[in-house]
Amino acid sequence: MSRLLPAVLDVVLVVVFAAVGRRSHAEGLDVAGVLRTALPFLVGTAAGWLVASIVLDGGPRTLGYGAVVVALTVVVGMGLRALAAQGTAPSFVVVATVVLSVLLLGWRLVARLVG
């Protein structure tokens, strides 16, 4: 259970990121569209969890763990989007990196301050 909540939070926040992005570009919020947008980033999030769990001693609630998850969410997500000929404009990469950092590191920071 200790690893489940952080994983669920990361997944939910990546889906929120995709939904907000679709909404801001008037692409609609249908479930299939949001999941299609989120999928490359969710694969990156899973990769981040895998790598962080192998290379770090700290648990999934730590900022270091979150940093690895953010990095791989962005790198793998953008790589998969590039392979699928989806948008990877430099401005999108910057915005995605900032927003995902705030979301995925933000809940960890709040949990740290509260706990």
Give an overview of the whole structure.
This protein is mostly helical. It has one domain. It is 80% helix and 0% strand. The chain contains four helices and no strands. Helix 2 (31-55) crosses helix 3. The radius of gyration is 14 Å and the shape is globular. The two termini are 17 Å apart. Pfam families: DUF3054 (PF11255). It comes from Phycicoccus sonneratiae. InterPro entries: DUF3054 (IPR021414). The chain crosses the membrane at residues 34-56, 63-83, 89-110. Keywords: Membrane, Transmembrane, Transmembrane helix.
Find the count of extended strands (DSSP E, 2+ residues).
0
For the largest beta-sheet, the strand count, sense and barrel status come to: none
What gyration radius follows from the Cα positions, in whole Å? 14 Å
Model regions low in confidence, pLDDT < 50 over at least 5 residues: none
Proportion of β residues? under 5%
- Class derived from helix and strand content: mainly alpha
What is the average of the pLDDT values? 94
Q: What is the chain-wise order of helices and strands?
A: HHHH
Question: Portion of residues in helices?
Answer: over 70%
**Large-scale geometry:** globular
Q: What is the terminal-to-terminal distance? A: 17 Å
Tally of alpha and pi helices? 4
How many structural domains does the protein architecture include?
1
Transmembrane segments: 34-56, 63-83, 89-110
InterPro entries: DUF3054
Protein name: DUF3054 domain-containing protein
Keywords: Membrane, Transmembrane, Transmembrane helix
